[in-house]
Amino acid sequence: MTIEDLLAREAIRDVMAKYTTAGDRLRVDDFVSCFTEDAVMESEHVPDERAFRYEGREAIRAWQARWLAGEGGTHGATFVRHHLSTSKIDLTGPDSARARTYWVAWTDIGPDHAGYYLDTFRKVEGQWLIAHRRVRMDWEADGSLFKSAVANTRPG
């Protein structure tokens, strides 16, 4: 492993942390800046009525703007904290990488839902960005405050 490899992995970890904190705090511009212009963000392993797929940075921005506006009564949480844990990052080229990262979201009820991200990263103009994120849900609490949130933030 080279110094360049270590620097790339750390830059990717930084993007993951920025995504998580920006999303939890509804900082839309910071959240969207984690993605390439042509990024895809989609769900996996959720019921069809809660599945989502957003293509392109502007579609991701519009989705986050709906969360910020509280459209559809997104959820009843007074706080959301996504915690990242194990993350395996594989550099696949000088400007590309894949990662698998486990996460759990905490809300007012405690552990609310959990899963992992399957990511493809691309280095664009010297900056590592998410090119494709699959959000895999493995578990949710019976009383999860997010059960209707994704469906409630779909476009009209």
Automatic annotation (TrEMBL):
Residues 5-134 form the SnoaL-like domain. CDD domains: NTF2_like. Gene3D superfamilies: 3.10.450.50. SUPFAM superfamilies: NTF2-like (SSF54427). Pfam families: SnoaL_4 (PF13577). This is Nuclear transport factor 2 family protein.
